[in-house]
């Protein structure tokens, strides 16, 4: 039904992550489910933070020239540095944007952060989910809610 979050998809992704034998498998299955089930997700990928660079992990869509992004660059770098979800309705009007494909019109980037708690990794940024769409302003509250829940489910698997 339009306007309702796809809770079935979240359930399926959470189950796949729980059953995955490794973080790499969990990321690969997450990207596959997102790309297969949400037609407005033209490109779906995960970057992992290594030192002060974001390194491209599993993705589906056209190959990106941005396989390593310094923290200070791009919408990806901004989301990881500011530790918040960033939604860009029109990538061509955002000066931070690093172009991956000429067809891309909008983007959402969701940091993957270890939940606050007593552990040494509490609050650490591990990486991020990055989704591009060929549609302008493709991402709404449902996408934000879904992807933030997916990021929270992925984090324990990536520590
Ligand atoms: N657009 C991103 C770069 C990654 S590609 O979209 C895959 C950015 O501005 O950081």
Protein topology:
Layout (H helix, E strand, L loop, with lengths): L6 H13 L3 H15 L5 E8 L2 E8 L7 E3 L3 H9 L3 E3 L17 E8 L11 E9 L7 H18 L1
Antiparallel strand pairs: 1-2, 1-6, 2-3, 4-5, 5-6
Bound molecules: methionine sulfoxide.
Methionine sulfoxide binds next to β1, α3 and β6.
Walk me through what this model shows.
The protein is built from four helices and six strands. By secondary structure, it is α+β, with helices and mostly antiparallel strands. Strands 3-2-1-6-5-4 form a six-stranded antiparallel beta sheet, with helices on both faces. It binds methionine sulfoxide. Methionine sulfoxide binds next to strand 1, helix 3 and strand 6.
Mean pLDDT over all positions: 96
By secondary-structure content and strand pairing, the structural class works out as alpha+beta
Strand order of the largest sheet: 3-2-1-6-5-4
**H/I helix tally:** 4
Bound molecules: methionine sulfoxide
Summarize the amount of helix as a percent range: 25-40%
Low-confidence stretches: none
Describe the oligomeric state of these chains in a short phrase: single chain
Sheet of most strands: 6 strands, antiparallel
Query: Which range does the strand content fall in?
Result: 15-25%
Principal-axes geometry comes out as globular
How far do the termini sit from each other? Answer: 36 Å
Backbone CA Rg: 15 Å
Order of helices and strands: HHEEEHEEEH
